[in-house]
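Structure ticket #2291
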Amino acid sequence: MARNAKTDVNTITTIRTRAEEDLVSFIKLVAPYQVLGPIHEEICRWWTRGDAKPNQLLLLPRDHQKSRLIAFRVAWTLTKDPTATFLYISATSTLAKKQLGLIKQILDSEIYRRYWPQHLLPDQGQRESWNANEIVLDHPARKAEGVRDPSVFTAGLTTTITGLHFKYAVLDDVVVRENAYTEICRLFKASMVSKV
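Resolution: structure written out below.
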């Protein structure tokens, strides 16, 4: 019996290590239902290559799973570095909240909790922050390093983010038909380019 338990621990450690090293492996582990075509695997390799630039722009036609892939990338980054902080901006706060919902679904899945149980308390009511606007991982490294900002904070173009500090900014579906030619969109793009 003890031998089987040790084998299980070794297997879990091997699978966890592989998933932390490779975004495609992570996606296949936490979302076995997710279909990844060659373009999706190429994007994952491009994002995570050794000489990747800190600012990356991904342009693909509609319905090519750009937003899903970035949600997996955010979850993967938080898995590897639970102290990381993300500002997730979309055209509207409602759109950003939908993306946060997908990230939460990944992190709160049974499969994820099996391999990374220290990242979230099992009971949502005991978590520091787990709502529609933001999430905070419960990993002890956050407290040890004194991280005060949320793991992921969502914002629309007009959301005030003064005083918040994030390691990463994700701009997803910022320009949409409804705002493409508006003054607020032009001002936002100019403002964000100067901050990033």
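Closing remark: Residues 59-195 form one domain.
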